Amino acid sequence: MILTSKFVDRGEEMKYLENKYKSGKAELILLYGRRRIGKTYLLQKLVKEFDGVYLLAEESENVLEDFSNILADKFNDVVLRENPLRSWNAFFSYLVEKSKERILVVIDEVQYIAKGEKGFLSILQKHWDSSLQYSKIMLVLCSSTVSFMEGVMSYKSPLYGRKTGSWEVTEIPYYYLPDFFNLNLEEIVRIYSVFGGVPQYWSSYDPNKNIWENMRELVIEKGSRYYEEPKYLLKMELRDVSRYFAVLRSIAQGSTRFGEIANKSRIDNNSLGKYLSVLEDLGYVVVERSVRAKKGGIYQIKDNFFDFWFRYVYPNRANIEMGMDIVPLIKDDFNVYVGKKFEELARKYVMILNAHGKLPEKYESMGRWWHKGEEIDIVGIGKRTLLLGEVKWKTLSCRDIENIIKSLEQKAEHIGHNSKEKNYLIVARKINCKREGIAQLYDLNDVFSPFPR
Ligand SMILES: Nc1ncnc2c1ncn2[C@@H]1O[C@H](COP(=O)(O)OP(=O)(O)O)[C@@H](O)[C@H]1O
Ligand SMILES: [Mg+2]
Q1: Residue 60 has what pLDDT?
Q2: 253 CB less than 6 Å from ligand 1?
Q3: What is the pLDDT of residue 61?
Q4: Second-level CATH architecture of 174-342
């Protein structure tokens, strides 16, 4: 694999892995996360830094032979080259022998091995218990199948209690996008709305073409690279995806309460609960609750790419298959969609401000608030103060801002906490108002530089 010069974010992940390496002790690390999120890229960097061994398991018949060749190269082992390892027992024995010194070994997409050889995890466990745990190996097992890794970590697994660490690699935060694209921030918000924080989609995106052309080339045309992506990703995790598809489609099209999803997807309540919790575990769906609410809540698709796909591609597949260009269809609705994504993004930004003490006080409860048809984009309930925030994907004048504040004031009556001092916050695409002191005002430039640099 070629490492391009761009390597964004992942500082925390690198530090975590480097510290594990420097511990000098035997380490068994489980690293997982959805395909395309950047696991291999990260591990390759680590392997390069510490001169480790990178083994990629594929759905091939000769995994052991492939691994033997790589190990033979790495250790200049002529005997091994002539006599490839014949069993996983022999493989781990070989690793035991090679781990008298500190050595990093990565096995990527390990679920393929476990699928082909049912006893694989037990064999590893046996070697771990008898010798590897006393050696100097740092063994990283990596998988794109989240459900597989959850199995490996569960108490039923042979490896239960053996791992010395685990890490789920998740999306790259939105504010790294400008490190990746030299484009204006409005365009970057649009890209983020479609492709989320998944670096492989970023690297597939051609910045010399506009977003519509990129959509066509990557997602919304039959045969394009990511046309069937969600199907492919879900099939890695689940046996029968059709029900899950119905659930995700309902949510993407705005049926977000439990009852609404049940109606639209025609799944009975008991089963729906199960499907939703599986999708939550896999990281595709989140429950969002009104600030301080303990139950209820609405379901949202967490992964922007999935949200986009289930909103525009999946419902229009028949048209697409007939060769129809769905860009005009998307254009009609896209501003609303991006507005929703910008609101989520702005909420993340305000959470960061809160964590860094940039708000009137540190709010323990903060998020969206709604009650009986009234809704506020951002509410923080603190000891002394109430924070009321609105997000707008447009340009605001002083007049707009005054109106927003008036309406926030009115809505705030319904939250309670009337004795608390009220503070107002507005995040907008652009702000055309120089007046100071009316509210905390933030525009796109602020949102994309969340930390003082
Ligand atoms: N930290 C990063 N910075 C820049 N590009 C990245 C980063 N991580 C991943 N990529 C890009 O995304 C692609 C897919 O990443 P990869 O590591 O293969 O994903 P995974 O192994 O999780 O499926 C890489 O080939 C690279 O182009
Ligand atoms: Mg990979």
Answers
A1: 76
A2: no
A3: 80
A4: Orthogonal Bundle (1.10)
> Considering the domain 346-447 in this protein, what is its CATH number?
3.40.1350
Give the number of other CB atoms < 10 A from CB of residue 98: 18
Residues contacting 121, CB < 8 A, separation 6+: 114, 152, 157, 158, 159
Nearest-CA residue for ligand 1 atom 12 is 200
Contact criterion met (CB below 8 Å) for 111 and 143 = yes
The answer on pLDDT for 378 being more than 80 is yes
Of 35, 47, 200, 205, which is best to mutate to test ligand 1, by the most ligand atoms within 8 angstroms of its C-beta? Answer: 200
The answer, yes or no, to whether any atom of ligand 1 lies below 6 A from the CB of 14, is no
Q: Does the predicted model carry a pTM greater than 0.90?
A: yes
Among the atoms of ligand 1, which is closest to the Cα of residue 8?
3
Distance CA 70, CA 66 (A): 6
Q: Quick one: pLDDT at residue 2? A: 45
With contact defined as beta carbons under 8 Å apart, do 178 and 188 qualify? yes
pLDDT at 3 over 80: no
Looking at all shown ligands, the one closest to residue 56's CA atom is 2
Average pLDDT of the chain? Answer: 95
What is the mean predicted confidence (pLDDT) over 169-176?
Answer: 97
Measured by CA distance, the residue closest to atom 13 of ligand 1 is: 200
What does the domain layout of the chain look like in residue ranges?
11-168, 174-342, 346-447
List the shell of residues around ion ligand 2, using CB closer than 5 Å.
Answer: 40
Confidence of residue 181 (pLDDT cuts 50, 70, 90): very high
Closest ligand to C-alpha of residue 42 is 1
Q: How many CB atoms lie within 10 A of CB 16?
A: 15
Residue whose CA is at the smallest distance from ligand 1 atom 16 = 38
Q: Which residues of 64-77 are buried (b: 16+ CB within 10 A; e: fewer)?
A: bebbbeebbebeee
Q: How far is the CA of 147 from the centre of ligand 2 (A)?
A: 16
pLDDT in tens, 7-61: 999 999 999 999 999 999 999 999 999 999 999 999 999 999 999 999 999 877 8
- Regarding the beta carbon of 34 and ligand 1, being less than 6 Å apart is answered no
Q: Is residue 452 predicted with pLDDT exceeding 70?
A: no
> Distance between CA 197 and CA 177 in Å, rounded?
8
Domain 11-168 has CATH 3.40.50.300: yes
Q: Is 147 exposed, middle or buried (0-12, 13-18, 19+ CB in 10 A)?
A: middle
pLDDT at 453 over 70: no
